[in-house]
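User: Hey, my collaborator sent me this sequence without any context and asked if I could get a structure. I don't really work with proteins. Can you help?
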Amino acid sequence: MQRTSLSVFSLFVLALATLSLVACGAPAGSGDSSKELNLYAWSEYIPQKMLDQFTEKTGIRVNYDTFSSNEELLAKLQAGSSGYDVIIASDYTVDILKKQNRLEPLELAKLPNFANIEATLKNPPYDPDNRYTVPYQWGTVGLAVDTAKVKRPISRWEDLWDPAFKGRVVLLDDEFEVLGMALQTLGFDKNTKDPAQLAKARAKLAQLRPNIKLFDSDSPKTALLSGEVWLGQVWNGEAALAQRENPAIRYLCPAEGCGIWHDNWAVPKGAPHKDAALAFIDYTMSPEAGIMITQAFPYSNPNRAALELLKKADPKLYSTYMASPATNPGPAFLKAAQPVEDKAENTPLWDRTWTEVKSGT
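Assistant: No problem. I've predicted the 3D structure and written it out in structure-token form, which is a compact way to encode the shape of the chain:
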């Protein structure tokens, strides 16, 4: 899964490309709406086994296209009719799409499996009453450390700046999380609107450049598992997958604070196969589908019934899931976690700052 942020220019290019696709009739599906579903979601995030079983149960073929960032998703939908029936959108993105009237209201009466979702994850602030979305997965952004390579205790983001870690740090390729981490390290709000604070975060990250081996949002665990890097900023699910292969990898929320996110199913305005979309979304909230999701992509699962079934069907995986802060963060972890918020009119400033960070200027 990747959450890379794009520049304003990149969004403009994507929008033009999308307009061309729509003009040519792509990617909207053809044929009977009951037999086809066009899905647009993160890469490396949807189990193929789940898609196959949905098709077996319903006869509805799933056309699965992927994006690499919420900003790419926004550009696609803002360009006009996309032809997609179901999307995955993160919390702050849902807020933006709602304001732009780009989502279809859901009919919760047609989603009986919504009852399986943990009550504390219903009715989120970005979508009160779940009028437009239901949860898919949620998680955190924290610090992963290979304790076989790093012998001293690590408890803060500030530890990444230690000269001993020259060329041994991985960061997400995500402007909101990386700049947010630097802001937290400086004691500022992760979503600041203050240009002076952003400038200080850019300078702080410039000091970290010698230690940064790579920016990677697709699979930061790969460099950790190969030993190429020893520690860094990762998605919780990446940490969980890394821990499956290397138990020496530890995942924590640093003392300065960490990140938290919620990904959601939604139906874009004008979806050509809305009935199929509702059938698919309901299926993904079934306990059986929930198990497949956690087996393949162990982020934090909002499906209470799925976790109860997992306890019986795969006790070992359930025990691992419950014991790890990567998948089951405790109260202290969650209290220190801060979400990304819509930057609104400050987005261009954040984009410019990120471009400067990546280019080293």
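In plain terms: Confidence is low (pLDDT under 50) at residues 2-32. You can pass these tokens on to your collaborator as they are.
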